[in-house]
Write a structure and sequence with these properties.
- The complex is a heterodimer.
- Chain A is an alpha/beta fold.
- Chain A has 11 helices and 11 strands.
- In chain A, strand 2, helix 3 and strand 3 form a beta-alpha-beta unit.
- In chain A, helix 7 runs parallel beside helix 11.
- The radius of gyration of chain A is 20 Å and the shape is globular.
- Chain B has a two-stranded antiparallel ribbon.
- The longest helix of chain B is centred in the N-terminal third of the chain and has 36 residues.
- The chains are: A alpha/beta, B mainly alpha.
């Protein structure tokens, strides 16, 4: 299947995403590959989506109840058990599931001894606060995960596919001179803006789009700002994207603001709301973001 | 002479106001010099930034500063309490909690009117504080102490509620910590008419208020409806601060500082006191906000002005402590009635029931309720027992600490939280998190202990001078608590994911406790509780007042130090298990007294049973209510305890 269906917007995008999910690598639940482990629980969304992407079905995932709000894609197959929040995975439930591998991140390091009492623990760093670019770290983490569970080949195939897709997006965007600002609007006066070394910023680099926000962020690649600070980053060809979730009462208030109205990037057609993409994601989320932003940028 | 007085009372505050304004303008100068006012050919974007971001921000700072300071001045005037202010009376925090609750659970209400929600929250919080105060003849100390307690609870609860509901959205943190950033005139233009109306009302009341200065009899002779006057003035003060909170969030301590400055510079008569408080407050917040913006430009992080003000302002409480006249309050004489007969057995039975349920009854993968059979218990017991034991130990320790503090101070709002120990532990944890990104449990415990210890040492130093007079020590503790709270909210406002870790910890879950920790907690608890029981004679005598106690040969300073030390250690140990906020240390001693356990030993034993049982029950509910998710025991007991507190105070008054 060709990774770059040339867009007739929206409808084609849906097709595209549908096609993505139907790829043999991440096929229907029954076709999950058999790695070394059959009973994996994941305490992290991004690791769970990576598992699904390389063809392993987790037994349990933390905070599954909010999966469709924060992760959306890939679709979680039926039968996966919600094991409670990642901070406080339900130990009684975990004991009854009898997992053979627990996937965590260094963020939950303090709980490692407890997790180890249920199954071997694999802790994979992506967001480890060292200020290094997140996307390459996510690639490496995917390989580590694949190798560990005996799906190394699948992991590399998945990453090669990701490379293709990024390249395809880059090709499609070759004629685009737009730069972008990526924000999360928190209330009518404040936003979070995304830059280096974050995941979104890494994707922009891969697909050859400039991030108009040149200011620095924290370790995780974002920074809290007043909406008025966006003015300093308003080139005429900058487009502004806000991720869902967007609090309901925000836009009506924001639209009356003279500053907002004066932002070239906020003018109609240049400002858009994007479906949510997990900000603490890995390669699957990066691909999803690359596709979404490419489609939006091409739909002028 | 009189004319001279009037002029003198005008010159001092006027000079201060002008000086503050000049400093603010000096800092803000680059904005003006690059503005369209200074030169004609500025880029259009700079023009908009100046007119629609910089100017409205300045206007908001001026209006909010004036409103909060006038509110504080009204409180101070009417209550004759030099430490009264929207912050110290819990009014701002009440509004903040109400707004957080509304935006989480009834967003429609927010669209309808955030002002009304804030007003309701302020009124409830203020009402509670005054309810406690009324029963103690509005003693300045009691009012401020209850206000600060309510303030801390409200602040912590709203932060944690947000956390539990929205893992990546930290918007309310920012809002709650009082940012003044603007991108239109909406906020200042919306705020101004409401504030103006209240200002007019306040000044209409100023003259009658001035007459109150003559003394209640004199005022009554003039035919003034005293109670109504006071109620109206307080109503205006509450409304002023609620409006500001609803518009820009909590801005700490301006409302305390400005009136004090006004009085210090000579504005002593009511009308000029109110007037100059407002002016100084406006200039002060303007200056603070400009300084914060300048600092924010230099730093990587987002700096909300309100939180910065709180960090700078809370130490001021410590400086101001000696201004409060304190006196020891005598508890209602304790009748040597029922020793540990029936009520004691009831309390013990409650504890045993709670323990039984917590160990045996649970939910499973199918989410059905079941009593664990012996086989299942073999797996479940190692998981459940540490948490149950930790909850038991922590609950009992907090209860004993509460008994000690309440008996020592004769103050019914005294509870371990107000010692500042748990706030210190929180602060220690915050510092550790910002140095070590993924702290191990050992590092966490060490950091929390160091924080608690530092606060304890500071309290000992501060308390030494005042011979550990209970009220001084408590207020010092809570001022430190406010400082820790301010720093934490300041850190969390940057949206750093590590803030979530801190919030988790503050919500007081027994989740991290393993068997070793639980057993050492239990051991520490046993030793400390036995120590406390050994102090029973002091605890029986001290509530009678310092004089009788001294006549029986008790050295006040040393005794109090020992008792505070015991309470502090109990609190520190318990905080590690169930976090810095739970109402147990407040609830359990009260319940035990209600049961008729009034002498020190039965009081402590009963309170320990009740406290331990409550905590075990809270932990069990937290584990089962929303299975497989969990609600931290500390948070749950605080949520359950708040209505309890209201009921208790309502019934007795």
């Amino acid at each position: 299947m060709s990774p770059d269906p040339v867009p007739k917007p929206l409808l084609r995008r849906r097709h595209f995403l549908g096609g993505l999910a139907a790829l043999p690598l991440m096929a229907t639940p029954r076709a999950f590959a058999l790695g070394k482990y059959q009973r994996i629980v994941s305490l992290d969304y991004a690791l769970a989506s990576t598992l699904l992407s390389i063809g392993a079905k987790p037994l349990g995932v933390a905070s599954l109840a909010d999966w469709n709000r924060w992760v959306v894609d890939p679709v979680m197959p039926r039968g996966v058990v919600d094991i409670g929040s990642s901070w406080e995975v339900n130990f009684e439930l975990l004991a009854s599931l009898e997992p053979d591998l627990v996937l965590t991140t260094p963020y939950l390091e303090a709980l490692r001894p407890r997790h180890e009492s249920f199954a071997p623990v694999l802790s994979i760093p992506v967001y480890n606060g060292d200020g290094k670019p997140v996307l390459p770290a996510a690639y490496k983490a995917t390989e580590t995960l694949g190798d560990h569970i005996g799906l190394g080949a699948e992991a590399r195939a998945f990453l090669a596919d990701a490379d293709h897709r990024f390249a395809a997006c880059r090709e499609r965007l070759a004629g685009t001179t737009d730069s972008v600002l990526l924000i999360n609007i928190m209330d009518p006066r404040h936003a979070r803006i995304f830059g280096a070394p974050g995941l979104y910023h890494g994707v922009l680099e891969r697909i050859g789009i400039a991030n108009a926000w040149t200011g620095s962020g924290n370790y995780w690649g974002f920074r809290t700002i007043g909406i008025e600070e966006l003015v300093e980053f308003g080139h005429p060809d900058t487009r502004l994207f806000a991720f869902e979730p967007l609090p309901r009462e925000v836009m009506p208030k924001l639209e009356t603001s003279p500053i907002w109205q004066a932002l070239p990037a906020a003018r109609s057609g240049r400002f858009e709301v994007l479906p949510g993409v997990l900000m603490f994601g890995m390669v699957r989320e990066a691909m999803r973001f690359a596709n979404i932003i490419t489609d939006r940028l091409l739909r002028t | 002479m009189k004319a001279f007085d009037a002029r003198a009372s005008f010159i001092g505050p006027a000079i201060l106001t002008v000086a503050l304004l000049a400093a603010a303008l000096a800092i803000a100068w680059p904005q003006f010099s690059a503005s369209p006012l200074a030169s004609a050919n500025v880029p259009p974007m700079a023009r908009i930034l100046f007119f629609d971001a910089a100017l409205p921000r300045m206007a908001t700072a001026l209006i909010a500063g004036a409103a909060l300071s006038l509110s504080g001045a009204l409180f101070q005037q009417v209550l004759r309490n030099p430490l009264a202010s929207p912050t110290t009376l819990g009014v701002s925090a009440g509004a903040s909690l109400a707004l957080a609750l509304a935006s989480l659970y009834a967003p429609a209400l927010m669209a309808f009117g955030g002002d009304l929600v804030a007003l309701a929250g302020s009124a409830i919080a203020g009402g509670l504080v005054f309810l406690v105060g009324a029963r103690k003849g509005f003693s300045p100390f009691t009012l401020v102490l209850s206000g600060m307690v309510i303030s801390l609870w409200c602040g912590a609860l709203s932060a944690i509620l947000v956390l539990l509901n929205d893992r990546y959205l930290v918007g309310l943190f920012i809002w709650g910590s009082g940012s003044l950033a603007q991108n239109s005139w909406q906020v200042p233009v919306g705020l101004l008419p409401k504030v103006l109306a209240l200002v007019v009302l306040a000044f209409l009341l100023a003259r009658p208020l001035a007459l109150i200065e003559l003394g209640d009899e004199g005022a009554r002779a003039l035919g003034l409806p005293l109670a109504w006057l006071r109620a109206a003035a307080i109503g205006i003060a509450v409304a002023l601060s609620a409006l500001v909170t609803s518009a820009v969030g909590v801005i700490g301590f301006v409302g305390l500082v400005a009136p004090i400055l006004a009085r210090l510079t000579g504005a002593r008569r009511p009308v000029s006191f109110l007037l100059w408080s407002g002016c100084i407050g406006a200039a002060l917040l303007f200056l603070a906000d400009e300084a914060v913006q300048r600092a924010a430009g230099a730093s990587e992080n987002f700096l909300p002005t309100g939180a910065v003000m709180a960090v700078l302002g809370s130490p001021l409480l410590l400086v101001l402590l000696p201004r409060l006249k304190t006196r020891h309050r005598v508890l209602a004489p304790s009748l040597p009635m029922s020793d540990f007969a029936v009520p004691g057995y009831v309390a013990a039975a409650f504890l045993i029931l709670a323990l039984t349920v917590a160990v045996w009854l649970g939910r499973d993968a199918a989410a059905g309720w079941s009593f664990a059979d012996p086989l299942a218990l073999r797996t479940l017991l190692p998981l459940r027992l540490p948490r149950v034991l930790a909850a038991l130990a922590a609950g009992a320790m907090l209860a004993i600490a509460g008994v000690i503090l309440q008996r020592l101070t004769g103050n019914e709002m005294a509870s371990p939280e107000v010692l500042g120990i748990s706030a210190g532990a929180t602060l220690g944890m915050a510092v550790a998190l910002y140095w070590v990104i993924e702290p191990s449990l050992t590092v966490q415990i060490a950091a929390a202990s160091v924080g608690a210890g530092a606060v304890l040492a500071a309290m000992a130093l501060l308390g030494m001078r005042a011979q550990f007079a209970p009220e001084r020590v408590l207020l010092a503790g809570i001022a430190l608590g406010a400082l820790a709270d301010a720093i934490v909210s300041f850190l969390t406002a940057s949206g750093d994911p590590r803030a979530l870790f801190l919030m988790r910890w503050m919500s007081g879950s027994t989740y991290m406790v393993d068997m070793n920790t639980a057993l050492s907690l239990l051991g520490a608890g046993t030793i400390l509780i036995l120590t406390a029981l050994a102090m029973r004679r002091w605890l029986d005598l001290l509530p009678l007042g310092p004089a009788p106690a001294q006549s029986l040969g008790i050295s006040l300073g040393r005794t109090r130090l020992a008792l505070y030390g015991a309470a502090a250690l109990l609190t520190a140990a318990a905080t590690l298990a169930v976090g810095p906020l739970s109402f147990v240390g407040l609830m359990a001693p009260h319940l035990a007294r209600e049961f008729g356990l009034k002498r020190a030993v039965p009081h402590m034993a009963g309170a320990a049973c009740i406290g331990g049982g409550l905590m075990v029950l809270a932990d069990w509910l937290g584990r089962t209510l929303i299975f497989p998710y969990q609600i931290p025991a500390g948070l749950l007991s605080a949520l359950l305890g708040a209505p309890f507190l209201i009921l208790l105070l309502g019934r007795r008054s």
